[in-house]
From TrEMBL:
Keywords: Membrane, Transmembrane, Transmembrane helix. The lineage of its organism: Bacteria, Bacillati, Bacillota, Clostridia, Peptostreptococcales. The chain crosses the membrane at residues 5-22. SUPFAM superfamilies: Thioredoxin-like. It comes from Tepidibacter hydrothermalis. Residues 53-189 form the Thioredoxin domain. Coiled coil: none annotated. This is TlpA disulfide reductase family protein.
Amino acid sequence: MIKKIFSIIVVIALLFGGFYIFNKQNNTKQDVSNNIVKENADKENIDEKSQELAVGKIAPSFTLKNLNGDEVSLSDYEGKIVLINFWATWCTYCDKEMPDLQRLNNENEDLVVLTVNVKESKEEVQSYIDKGNYDFPVLLDENGETSITYLVSAFPTSYFVDENGILLGAVQGMMSYDKMNTILEQIRENK
């Protein structure tokens, strides 16, 4: 009898606790959403920043500086398939994936591998790229804003965008060359 009463109390506590946490998370998400909306309202380019990140829709546009200090936009690559790869120099899986990204970029004229380093110094990134002999485009997301727009929560994270700027999908985590190539072939088949 005592076990039953104890079990009932535990179940009730879990239900109320779960309800409390769910409510707290929703309120926190709402507060964060309100802050983001308020911050975006203060920016001149609100239309550009408020694009929805969804498969089948236009990929959110961005403009970042490359390692030469030139501004590069996603729209600069219209007409090509774009693999946007978010990464960091300290990321072991990013490091393992880089040679395959380079190979894929070299072997496919209709594809551009556009790597976006998140919140690291230009010098650190340049040193890493030079050491690896990589020559694909490298952009610097110095304040992390673009990675937030693209909901990046782990490195590496890659997005595939078609020739018309439509977001086709995302892969969180390291991809092998074979997986990259398979996805690229599927994109070509579905044109």
